[in-house]
Amino acid sequence: MGEHNDVKKTSYDKLMRAWQNSMELTRDFEMYSKSVDDEELKSVFKKFAEEEGFHASKFRELLLKRQKEQLQ
Predict the structure, then answer these.
(1) How would you write the chain as a 3-class SS string?
(2) Cβ neighbourhood burial of 66 (10 Å; 0-12, 13-18, 19+)
(3) 54/41 Cα distance (integer angstroms)
């Protein structure tokens, strides 16, 4: 397939996908933390949910910044 027919992913596209993945992981880890009986595992999933939530928040900030820049 020639290059002229390839769909190009922009940095914004990759950032959007990273944000979506990060939000999904946050939800998954939170659900896991609430559904396991093992306290150590529960704690790990809860910590990971919090950390991934931070990542999702940062990705969102970057997305909003870029959207704002495009409107100017």
Answers:
(1) CCHHHCCCCCHHHHHHHHHHHHHHHHHHHHHHHHHCCCHHHHHHHHHHHHHHHHHHHHHHHHHHHHHHHHHC
(2) middle
(3) 20
Note whether 11 and 2 are within 8 A (CB). no
What is the pLDDT, as a whole number, of residue 51? 98
pLDDT digits (tens, 9 = 90+) for 5-36: 889 999 999 999 999 999 999 999 999 999 99
pTM (predicted TM-score): 0.84
Task: Mark residue 42 as left, alpha or beta (left: phi above 0; alpha: psi -120 to 50; beta: remaining).
Answer: alpha
Q: What is the mean pLDDT of the chain?
A: 94
